[in-house]
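Predict the assembly for these two chains.
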Amino acid sequence: MSKLHIPVEHTTLANGLRVVASPDHSAPFVTVGVYYQIGFRLEPRGRSGFAHLFEHMMFQGSEHAGKMEHIRLVNSSGGLLNGTTNYDITNYFESVPSNALERVLWLEADRMRALKVDDENLRNQRDVVKEEVRVNVMNQPYGGFPWLDLPPIAFRNWPNAHNFYGDFADLDAATLADVRQFFHTYYAPNNAVLLMLGDFDPKEAFALAKQYFEHIPTAPAPPRADVSEPPQQEERTGEVPEKFGPLAAIAIGYTMPQRDSKDWYAAAILDRVLHGGRAGRVHRRLVLERQIAVDADGGADLLEANGPTQMVTRIFPKPEVDTKAAIAAFDEVIGELTAQGVTEDELAAVKVKTRSDFYSMLEGGMGSYMPRFGLMHYLACFTLFDGDPDRVNSVLDSLLAVTPSDVQSLAQKILVRPNRAVVIRRPVAKGVAQ
Amino acid sequence: MSTPAAVNTNLAAVPALGPERPVAWPKRTIRTLANGLQVVLAESRTFPKVSAQLFFRSGNAVVARTTPGLAEMTASVVRTGTSSRTSHQIEDDLRRMGADLSTSAGADSSVIGISGLAEFSAGLLELVSDLARNASFPESEFERERRQKLEELKIARTTPGFLANERFRRVLFGDHPYAIVAPTEEQVAAYRRAELEKFYRCHYTPANALLIAVGDFASEAMLAQIEEIFGDWRAPLPESSLVAVPPKPSGRQIFLVHLPGTVQTEVLVGNLAITRHDPDWFRAVLANSIYGGAFHSRLVINIREQKGYTYSPRSGVNALRQHGYFSAHAAVRNDVVAATLTEMFYELDRMRSLPVTAEELESARSYLTGVFSLGLATQQGLLTQLSTVYLERLPEDYLETYRDRIRALSADDVMLAARRHFDSANAQIIIVGDRDQIADQAALFGPVTQYDVHGQQLSN
């Protein structure tokens, strides 16, 4: 097997900004990202959806690049850009031809240093975000299933359990003062990491990073929200109405082990025994063998979570199959795994697929037009959560070292009713769309 | 390092772009085997993976008149069994090679696509060959896939984007096979296994095929491997079936698809345009980029960044093999449907009436040429580019000359393309939403024809 080594160089600037570079001269591109350690899990109470709304505001102008300038300058340099809000991080990134590296660093530094927005920008983006929520959640069959459905049922602590896209009333209540305070609290260099990947000389890239970012003042470390969950005693269940889709949909989430524990690696492998397409046990049993579901699969985003997170299975039972029967069939799969474990042969195949998927994630990870997006994402999470970007070169070995007994004993420990939540999307009325 | 004062001056000015670094266009190895199979290979060796796609130049258009969607159903069942492998074995084999497989069909082609670890390249290609030549169409797998398709169709008919696109293609293409984007449930229920097999025998042939492989391999060795695996495959080219170009719809017409209970309206506007072989293709691509094809485009600035009507408006020039079309779409809140249409047409007419500014022109040209090169930095991106070139039979130097052809275009080219291909006077308008909330707004633009989600016309 060929062993892939990713070059990783990193430093910390005087103001606390961590800088990570991974040179790659295979094509004349650079992908640049700035990751701030603030996500919707950490947004202020009573301000659901604010972290995401704020992400939009970061595209509305900074001191030397006014509204639309950031977007125009990246597009007209031949590049693409975007940002996303996640549980524990918010990221801003662009892929451009390598001759635009300095320009992109200038842009990112300008908005880290001096966001400049007004009430009009806020009203405008509040409207845009509402349409985003409508197009992705309220006006689509199974919109928001299950990522918005499960947390309020699975978790008890507000940071983990609230509506991450935001209630419209909370979005309406957001003020420019809130935006400014959020910026000053969380968008400081010492709460972020800058990543540069692609075709550049690392020495020059670090010098540019220093030139554009090092003078940005440090801020007091933001308050660390308590994201811990009280111990769960019994299975949690709930239902959510499905307005458009004709089928019921079931999501079953098991809370995963803490980041970086030995169980954490075993959990990642366990997830891939159960999920990951047609060879996964859940799809094979429910869709291919028993044929009681139209679709069934799932997964866990362990590498990018820095707090309570779940492995989630999604099942779309056929309309004539009762949701209880579908869950019972799923429980049989879980029962077999806990009772009999996995064979060496099955685990070996799962590991080959894990390795292959890991490489694909590093190479692209967000469509083919954001080269090395996945590598950037992993480097950022390993830096912010573990303090060690170079883990990108060892995490795969740790995953491949998991044994059948690790998987079985973990399954016995975590795949239990008092560690899970079940939510059912129930169609409101048959034939509503006649 | 600079002094603080110098840094401050520096900070107010946008840094100039550095000197452009040359793009090394991937070297291709192109060969046609004795059996007619066209092979295109490109090395991309940064990550130890291989991606390959075996295309057949026949898709749903071939069967649209008799059995709509049959090519797609055939592709779905192809992966479920061969003369020597069961469905389970196929999935297990894939996992053991770290592979993902997808089989699908569009209007013009069917494809078996695989991506896995380079160390298993022979096994990956053998599996593709097995699926392409020895699919067994197990009855039980066919019935399972058919049932899944039926459920998927039910869900699609509650999805605004699908409904808008379905009605749009019907309106644009009329009697042409491209009018149909999905079968009805009745049509799926009527498929027979023998029809799938017949499509497979007739169209999954080497003379009708194109194999593109990208990844971590040495081209000469890979070519030898392909010769060995695919060389003894013999089957003839199917008859081609070209259908006459439909007449362009004339005059603006409005079609409302009634989806009760929606809290947002899908708006789609467009017209018949051109294929990639038209001399205006690059002009149209550039004009589209300025109109609504990029984040920094007029439509996005207008209805998103200035007015806040929508989250993700976009436009596109779309090329099928025989015809193409231009379209712009946005999902907007219900009370601004008329306002959105007004702005969409305003921006279309502005493109047709006034030259774009020098700054817009330069910006859009740089955008297209830059993003084009980014697409070559991943195996999947490279595969997508190569499949466009070779599937559409574009010139061999298409990749190498793309950037120069875009850079050579002027503001006159943009206006010319807009006048010819953004046919504002004859644009067809589709809106999908709750008619009680939007029918009045639609009627401001002309006579409205209403449909239910199954395509049955409703009385107004």
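The first helix of chain B runs from residue 4 to 12. Residues 253-458 of chain B form a domain with the Cytochrome Bc1 Complex; Chain A, domain 1 fold (CATH 3.30.830.10).
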